[in-house]
Amino acid sequence: MSETKSSVLESEVEKFTIYASKWWESKKKTKFLLQTIEEVRIPLVKSGLTDAGLIKEANQDKSNMFEGIKILDVGSGGGRMAEPLAIMGADVTGVDPTKEMVDVAKEHLKTHENLKIDYICDTIENYSVNNKEKFDAVTIFDVTQHVKDVHQLLKASVDCLKPGGRVFITTWNKTFIAWFFLIFLFEWLLGIFPRGAHDFKYFISPDKISGYLEEFNCKTVEVKGFWYNLWNKKWSFTWYTGVFYTMQAIKEA
Ligand SMILES: C[S@@+](CC[C@H](N)C(=O)[O-])C[C@H]1O[C@@H](n2cnc3c(N)ncnc32)[C@H](O)[C@@H]1O
């Protein structure tokens, strides 16, 4: 197996090693952030896979509608996203270089029966070189703000995608308002994240990601913001992409 230059920031792996054991803890303070899985990420993937014609017609209203779809979850962490995707029927491969995170994900998987998830402890750059398997979709959820080279991470991720396949991304924009909410408010004032968990230097705009994806033959088809409504306590999509955003792109043939 060859070792490839990677986008991994050792300092981030050290942080995730410390956070790993608490990954599945449902704290009151962070519960609203976990709601993004149900209220933002799953609807995003569902709409993209439906547009791509990958969800079989007979399965459209079924709880296992992702059956037969192969998804690569890049930076799968403790499996918080890989599991719901697999519960919906997908055949998931999760790749993450933080060993403690992968151990937590594997342990948590034991709480389910028959979910099709394969967790691999590696960087996406190594994985893309050493594995020839191609996927229908690649999910990169809250990973780009934790790597030193998004260009490299995206290249490796897209290399694992079939032509016509979809890339789904969620991350945070590089704006003053994103810094204000995510670092000043969430880390320093409210303690929602541990202090120092994020570095503004690695935040990135949707235009930059879109430009990189274009280099790798992927056309961005959607960029949407999402926001938490304090009245109904739910996340919803919005036109405003200045803080949290999702992206969807198609790999052209
Ligand atoms: C904030 S966590 C996100 C975990 C998961 N996607 C979620 O949303 O729950 C970021 C993860 O990206 C992983 N990561 C960092 N660099 C990576 C790389 N080059 N390839 C794959 N994963 C990487 C880290 O180890 C960490 O577990």
UniProtKB/TrEMBL annotation:
InterPro entries the record matches: SAM-dependent_MTases_sf, UbiG_MeTrfase
Top-level taxonomic group: Eukaryota
GO BP, sorted A to Z: methylation
GO MF assignments: 3-demethylubiquinol 3-O-methyltransferase activity; polyprenyldihydroxybenzoate methyltransferase activity
Keywords, in A-Z order: Membrane, Methyltransferase, S-adenosyl-L-methionine, Transferase, Transmembrane, Transmembrane helix, Ubiquinone biosynthesis
Membrane-spanning residues: 176-193
GO CC annotations on file: mitochondrion
PANTHER family: METHYLTRANSFERASE, UBIQUINONE BIOSYNTHESIS O-METHYLTRANSFERASE, MITOCHONDRIAL
Protein name: 3-demethylubiquinol 3-O-methyltransferase
Lineage: Eukaryota, Metazoa, Ecdysozoa, Arthropoda, Hexapoda
